């Protein structure tokens, strides 16, 4: 059941990050979900490194959205260098 919840939360976080981040992100439902999940992982890793989260504690909603925005920014930089 926790995997289904992670997918749903990842999708919602990905949608919020895409809505906040300026520009056109051509992503489908699956890529939006993966974006949200990766954003949560990035936020959890950075939060634990900075002492905001205890070891094993998941990132919060705001941290997950910020992490997803960071991932979108990095992907945008990589895409611009390719073109």
TrEMBL record:
Any Pfam family = Transgly_assoc
- TM region positions: 6-21, 28-47, 59-79
Superkingdom field: Bacteria
Task: Please state the protein's primary subcellular location.
Answer: membrane
Q: How does it sit in the membrane?
A: Multi-pass membrane protein
The entry's keywords: Cell membrane, Membrane, Transmembrane, Transmembrane helix
Where is the protein localized? Cell membrane
Family of this protein: Belongs to the UPF0410 family.
Q: What is this protein called?
A: GlsB/YeaQ/YmgE family stress response membrane protein
């Amino acid at each position: 059941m926790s995997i289904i919840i992670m997918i749903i939360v990842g999708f919602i976080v990905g949608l919020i990050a895409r809505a906040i981040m300026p520009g056109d992100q051509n992503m489908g439902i699956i890529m939006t979900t993966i974006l949200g999940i990766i954003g949560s992982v990035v936020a959890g890793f950075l939060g634990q490194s900075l002492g905001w989260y205890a070891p094993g504690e998941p990132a919060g909603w705001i941290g997950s959205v910020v992490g997803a925005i960071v991932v979108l920014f990095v992907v945008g930089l990589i895409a611009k260098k390719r073109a």
